[in-house]
């Protein structure tokens, strides 16, 4: 998704503009294709740039930022990233974005019609590429506005704490934007005939139509070969050529120098331009966007700003799942495109206005809640994220040992457990995983957002722990994590956690969630053996800003799968190499007694 996709609110009339297509050379001589829209007959223009692997628009009509920028006297440029659209070279996701982006910024700043100042914007991949370019410190770059932007792809988005974000990874890799586009380029280059190209498209579409089965098929490491096995590719081409990153990514479960080579987080201290970071509570890139904001706030000399709505990656309306959060909750009602223009006017045009006119930091979030008639929300401004007044609050998991089978047994209490409390136990069956129901999702046939979780909580492979009815409202504002003492009889396995708001009438709405692969419980950069006995596992559940009214409950769900969002763990030491014959169930235990505590930590205002 791009933060410049078609907007539903009224667009400003666009002054007469001209459209020019150019190619320019990257640092290694590769030709990159760029399209520039600019007001007719004007010069000394600031420029806004979006670099995208998803295709340049033919015109700016209906595009939120582009339409406003042209009307305000900016030039707007869209560039096909390397190996996409009309740009030459091979598409290797994010490998060349730093040098290519820097070269493009400097090329634009040097045009005769330019005033030498460039801002970058865009969402998802066009958001993350801004960080790479900014770390190169190109002449002319004045500001970046990464919306819905990934950060470390090994930490979230495509992978998360050892697990594969299977739904997103598969749909993005096999979809039209990546594998499908590669098929089109090979066809245009006469390396695929029409019949073979059509067969490849059909095979890719069929795999996505059967997304749940595709994400659970094994071994995952050779998924493109199995999806395209019936396609008669010509000599010199393999299924791996259509998805060139698949092998490199799925054969490296551990964070290493390969992943480091396109991880923007180590480069934060090289980024010295202001940033506007926008994300949503049910947004696939929430973790990445918040990490980018926090890292640059701490390590960049330039001001950084953050906005978090209730949105998902491809849904910026006020209704996300089963709930709507009020008339002001949508991106259009909030005015996110106009906010971009105030940001660029301030830092690119050097004409401060709006919330950026002062020296303060803009941090705004929509505080969600569940009211009697559905969802509700209120925009709130903070001094930082998390707010400096917020404090961690710890709730201990307690039960009589039947939290997986009795909803009334598992409890969340402020009092630490005593000795000899019985552990809870369940069986994780990889062939019958806990289904994904909402959450921060993208790009598959499972919808993101807020949904009633009661059907999932009735499963005997899901443990639930619930607070007493709250005597006072609780306002959660910041990160959430679960610290679990667990054990398994498998060589490796997963543990998942989900925070839920239970209303007075019993509905259970998901707020945030996470996963941890046991062999990576000490960090993604080192794999360790799983012991025969208890081990400590921390699950990062990302961020939330939510108010739970008095009389309602908080609930924590603990399980070992969440599919198809994540790949169901087969119970082997090499899960992405496992075949159907290797799959085995895992018997899991969760401890909650003295010296083996398990707890939930929320951030509370």
Automatic annotation (TrEMBL):
The keyword Hydrolase applies. Residues 1-26, 398-441 are annotated as: Disordered. One of its GO terms (molecular function) is hydrolase activity. It comes from the Archaea. Residues 17-26 have a biased composition (Basic and acidic residues). Keywords: Hydrolase. InterPro entries: AB_hydrolase_fold, CocE/Ser_esterase, Galactose-bd-like_sf, Xaa-Pro-like_dom, Xaa-Pro_dipept_C, Xaa-Pro_dipeptidyl-ppase/CocE. Residues 341-601 form the Xaa-Pro dipeptidyl-peptidase C-terminal domain. This is CocE/NonD family hydrolase.
């Amino acid at each position: 998704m791009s933060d410049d996709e078609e907007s539903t609110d009224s667009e400003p009339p666009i002054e007469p503009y001209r459209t020019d297509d150019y190619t320019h050379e990257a640092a290694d001589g590769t030709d990159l294709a760029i399209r520039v829209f600019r007001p007719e007959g004007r010069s000394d223009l600031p420029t806004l740039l979006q670099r995208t692997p998803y295709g340049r628009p033919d015109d700016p009509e209906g595009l939120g930022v582009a339409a406003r920028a042209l009307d305000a006297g900016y030039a707007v440029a869209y560039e096909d990233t390397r190996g996409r659209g009309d740009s030459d070279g091979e598409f290797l996701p994010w490998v060349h974005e730093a040098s290519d982006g820097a070269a493009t910024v400097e090329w634009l700043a040097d045009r005769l019609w330019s005033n030498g100042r460039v801002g970058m914007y865009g969402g998802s991949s066009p958001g993350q590429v801004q960080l790479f370019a900014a770390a190169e410190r190109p002449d002319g770059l004045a500001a970046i506005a990464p919306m819905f932007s990934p950060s470390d792809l090994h930490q979230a988005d495509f992978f998360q704490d050892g697990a594969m974000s299977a739904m997103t990874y598969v749909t993005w890799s096999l979809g039209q934007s990546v594998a499908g586009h590669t098929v089109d380029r090979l066809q245009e280059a006469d390396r695929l005939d029409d019949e073979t190209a059509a067969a490849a498209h059909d095979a890719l579409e069929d795999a996505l139509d059967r997304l749940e089965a595709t994400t659970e098929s094994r071994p995952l490491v050779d998924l493109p070969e199995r999806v395209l096995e019936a396609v008669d590719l010509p000599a010199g081409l393999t299924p791996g050529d259509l998805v060139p990153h698949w092998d490199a990514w799925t054969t490296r479960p551990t964070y290493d120098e390969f992943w480091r080579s396109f991880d923007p987080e180590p480069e934060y201290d090289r980024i010295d331009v202001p940033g506007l970071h926008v994300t949503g509570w049910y947004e696939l890139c929430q973790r990445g966007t918040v990490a980018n904001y926090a890292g640059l706030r701490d390590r960049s000399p330039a001001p950084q700003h953050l906005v978090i709505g209730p949105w998902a990656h491809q849904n910026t309306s006020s209704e996300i799942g089963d709930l709507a959060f009020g008339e002001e909750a949508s991106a259009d009602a909030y005015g996110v495109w106009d906010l971009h223009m105030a940001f660029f006017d301030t830092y690119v045009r050097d004409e401060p206005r709006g919330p950026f006119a002062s020296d303060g930091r803009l941090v705004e979030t929509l505080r969600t809640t569940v009211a009697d008639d559905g969802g509700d929300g209120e925009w709130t401004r903070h001094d930082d994220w998390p707010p400096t007044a917020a404090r961690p609050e710890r709730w201990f998991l307690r039960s009589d040992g039947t939290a997986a089978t009795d909803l009334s047994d598992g409890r969340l209490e402020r009092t630490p457990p005593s000795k000899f409390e019985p552990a809870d136990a369940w069986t994780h069956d990889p062939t019958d995983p806990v289904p994904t129901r909402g959450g921060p999702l993208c790009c598959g046939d499972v919808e993101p957002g807020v949904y009633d979780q009661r059907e999932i909580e009735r499963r005997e492979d899901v443990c639930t722990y619930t607070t007493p009815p709250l005597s006072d409202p609780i306002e959660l504002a910041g990160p959430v994590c679960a610290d679990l003492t667990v054990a398994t009889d498998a060589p490796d396995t997963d543990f998942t956690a989900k925070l839920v708001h239970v209303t007075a009438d019993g509905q259970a709405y998901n707020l945030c969630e996470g996963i941890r692969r046991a062999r990576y419980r000490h960090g993604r950069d080192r794999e360790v053996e799983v012991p025969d006995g208890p081990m400590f596992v921390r699950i990062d559940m990302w961020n939330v800003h939510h108010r739970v009214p008095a009389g309602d409950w908080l609930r924590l769900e603990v399980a070992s799968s969440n599919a198809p969002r994540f790949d169901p763990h087969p119970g082997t030491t090499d899960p992405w190499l496992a075949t159907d014959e290797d799959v085995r169930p895992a018997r899991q235990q969760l401890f909650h007694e003295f010296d083996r505590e398990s707890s939930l930590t929320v951030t509370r205002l």
